[in-house]
Write a structure and sequence with these properties.
Layout lengths: L5 H48 L8 E8 L4 E6 L12 H11 L3 E14 L3 E10 L14 H8 L4 E5 L34 E8 L5 H9 L13 E6 L2 H5 L18 E5 L6 E5 L6 E5 L11 E2 L5 H9 L4 E2 L11 E7 H10 L3 H16 L4 H10 L25 H15 L1 H7 L19 E8 L2 E9 L5 E9 L5 H18 L1
Parallel strand pairs: 4-5, 5-12
Antiparallel strand pairs: 1-2, 1-16, 3-4, 3-13, 5-11, 6-7, 6-10, 8-9, 14-15, 15-16
Length: 508
C-alpha cells in the first residue's frame, strides 16, 4: 500500500491546476491571434475588393496580390498569389539579387594580360589581350570615372585583341518585341558594351563661315568642283565614330537637306548601322538610338573583333591602335580592372528601370559565377541553387523583363524581396530601390514619403508593383501586386494600387 501525504497531494493538485490554466491561457492567446489574423485578412480582402479587384480599370483583366509580414512569418493577404503573371520590369528584382550575390562591392570592368608575339612584318610585338566582362559602364557618359579607359590609354603595347570566348548569349533577348529595336530602352546586349550601346544624335545648327561650315564645305566638294547646296543643320553624333563610319541616305558628313528646318526623324535599319531620315512634324533636338553591335561568331578563342563596332570604336579611342589578327595561347592569366561600385549600377537600374543595365548585370553575374556570359545558364543555375526553395518556380527568361515569356507569381516576388533583405540588409536595399516621389515612383506616394520602397513594371496591358511598405504602426510588410490583360491605360491601375497600399499603411 502506497502512502502519500496530504500536503503532497494538494501540491500536485495545485501544480496540475496551474499547468491547466497556463494551457488554457495559451490556447486563448493563440485563438485570439488566429481570430486577429483572420480579421486582418478579411479587412484587407474587403479593401482589395472595393479598391482593386472591382475597379473598372482592372476588372477587365486579372490581378494577383500577396502581402507578407517578415517579422511574424505570416501572410496577411493572398489573392491569386500563386497564379502566374507577366511581371514586366519586376523581373529586375531577381536580376538585382543575382548582381548583389555575385558581383561583390565593385564591378570587374575588364580583364587583361600582355602577350609577346612574332610578326613577319614587325618582328617581336607586344599584344594587349582583353577579356571583357560585360560591364555597361565602360565609356558610358553617365560614369565620369573610367579606370578601364585610363588603363588603356596609359598601357604600352603594339596591338590589341579582344576575347569573345566567354560570350554565350545573343544580342537580343527571347520574347523581345522585334519592332522596338529603334527604341533607346532596347539597347543590344554585348560582351564589351561601349557608350551604353547607344548612339546619341543631335541636330546642330551650322553658322555660315564657321570652322565647321568651311570644313564640311570642303569635304562636300565633288570631283567636278561643284558644291552640294549649303544647309543650316548638321548631325552631331556621340560617339563621334559614327559621323565618319556610318552610311546614310544623307551622309553624316554632309549637310542635311530638309524641306522644313530641322523637322526630321531618324530610323535605323534593323540589322545594320544604316540610318534613314524621314520627315517629321516636330523639330529634332536629340535622339538616342541603339546601334547594331554586330558580333560575328568564330571558333577561335581570340578574334580581332574586326566586325564589331566596339572594337572599331576602341581602336579609334586608342589613337588608331591596330587590331591583332593572329591567334593567342589558349591558357592566359588575366588581371581584373575594377570599374565602379556595384550599387552605382544597381541604383539607376532600379530607379529608372534601365533595361540595358539589367541585361548586362545578369550577364556579368553569369561571367563571375560560371566563367562565361549566358543569361539562360545563370538563370537555370540560380533556380537550382540559391533560389531552389522558391514557392512557385518562375519562367524566367531575361534580365530586364522586356520579354513577355516571363511568368512569375506574386508570392515569388515576396520571396525574393524577403531573401534580398535578409542576405544584404535593409539599409542597402533602401538605398537602391526608389521611394515615393523618386525614380519610376516620382508621380506616386509623394505624401509622407520614405514609407514605400518598390519596383514598378510596365508593358502594354501589364503593370506591376512589388516592394516594401512601412505601416503607420511601424510594421514592415512585403507586398506584390501584379495586373495583366486590362484594357485601360497603366495610370488608373497604378492609382488604384496606390490607394489600396495607402489604406493598408493608414490602418495597420
Amino acid at each position: 500500500m502506497r502512502y502519500i501525504k496530504e500536503s503532497n497531494v494538494k501540491m500536485i493538485l495545485v501544480i496540475g491546476d496551474w499547468s491547466l490554466g497556463i494551457r488554457r491561457i495559451l490556447g486563448c492567446l493563440l485563438l485570439l491571434g488566429f481570430i486577429s489574423s483572420c480579421s486582418v485578412s478579411k479587412q484587407i480582402g474587403k479593401q482589395a475588393n472595393d479598391i482593386l479587384i472591382n475597379d473598372t480599370a482592372i476588372s477587365t483583366g486579372h490581378i494577383g496580390i500577396s502581402i507578407y509580414e517578415p517579422a511574424t512569418d505570416k501572410y496577411w493577404y493572398n489573392y491569386n498569389a500563386t497564379k502566374y503573371f507577366i511581371p514586366a520590369s519586376n523581373t529586375k528584382l531577381f536580376t538585382l539579387y543575382a548582381g548583389m550575390k555575385y558581383l561583390g562591392d565593385s564591378l570587374v570592368g575588364m580583364r587583361y594580360t600582355f602577350y609577346d608575339a612574332l610578326s613577319s612584318k614587325d618582328g617581336n610585338i607586344k599584344i594587349l589581350a582583353l577579356n571583357p566582362s560585360g560591364d555597361p559602364t565602360f565609356l558610358n557618359p553617365e560614369f565620369t570615372y573610367q579606370p578601364v579607359s585610363t588603363f588603356l590609354h596609359n598601357a604600352r603595347f603594339d596591338k590589341f585583341t579582344v576575347s569573345q570566348d566567354s560570350w554565350k548569349s545573343s544580342s537580343l533577348g527571347s520574347g523581345w518585341a522585334w519592332d522596338d529595336y529603334n527604341e533607346p530602352y532596347l539597347a543590344e546586349r554585348s560582351p564589351m558594351p561601349v557608350y551604353g550601346n547607344i548612339i546619341k544624335i543631335e541636330l546642330e545648327k551650322v553658322e555660315e563661315n564657321s570652322a565647321r561650315y568651311l570644313a564640311l564645305k570642303k569635304r562636300n566638294t565633288k570631283k567636278d568642283s561643284s558644291i552640294i547646296p549649303v544647309q543650316k543643320y548638321f548631325l552631331k553624333t556621340t560617339p563621334s565614330f559614327f559621323e565618319k563610319n556610318l552610311n546614310t541616305k544623307a551622309d553624316f558628313n554632309y549637310f542635311i537637306e530638309m524641306e522644313k528646318e530641322g523637322k526630321i526623324k531618324i530610323v535605323r535599319h534593323q540589322f545594320s548601322n544604316i540610318f534613314d531620315f524621314e520627315r517629321s512634324s516636330t523639330v529634332l533636338k536629340s535622339v538616342a538610338i541603339p546601334f547594331y553591335t554586330k558580333i560575328d561568331s568564330t571558333s577561335l578563342n581570340f578574334m580581332p573583333y574586326e566586325h564589331s563596332v566596339a572594337s572599331k570604336i576602341l581602336s579609334e579611342l586608342l589613337s588608331k591602335k591596330e587590331i591583332y589578327n593572329g591567334t593567342l595561347g589558349l591558357k592566359l592569366d588575366f588581371t581584373p580592372i575594377h570599374s565602379q561600385p556595384s550599387d552605382s549600377l544597381f541604383k539607376p537600374m532600379m530607379h529608372r528601370s534601365d533595361n540595358f543595365f539589367a541585361e548586362q548585370t545578369l550577364l556579368m553575374a553569369s561571367n563571375e559565377h560560371l566563367g562565361y556570359m549566358s543569361d539562360e545558364k545563370i538563370i537555370d543555375t540560380l533556380l537550382k541553387t540559391d533560389l531552389k526553395d522558391i514557392p512557385q518556380k518562375p519562367k524566367w527568361v531575361d534580365g530586364s523583363g522586356l520579354s513577355r515569356y516571363n511568368l512569375f507569381t506574386p508570392q515569388s516576388f515576396v520571396y525574393i524581396l524577403n531573401k534580398t533583405k535578409n542576405e544584404f540588409g535593409w539599409d542597402r536595399i533602401k538605398n537602391i530601390l526608389p521611394t515615393g516621389g523618386t525614380g519610376t515612383l516620382s508621380s506616386y506616394y509623394k505624401k509622407d514619403s520614405s514609407f514605400i520602397y518598390a519596383k514598378t513594371g510596365t508593358l502594354s496591358n501589364n503593370c506591376a508593383l512589388s516592394g516594401y511598405l512601412i505601416t503607420k504602426k511601424g510594421k514592415l510588410l512585403i507586398f506584390s501586386v501584379l495586373a495583366n490583360n486590362y484594357i485601360s491605360g497603366a495610370t488608373p491601375v497604378r492609382r488604384a494600387v496606390e490607394k489600396f497600399l495607402l489604406a493598408i499603411r493608414e490602418n495597420y
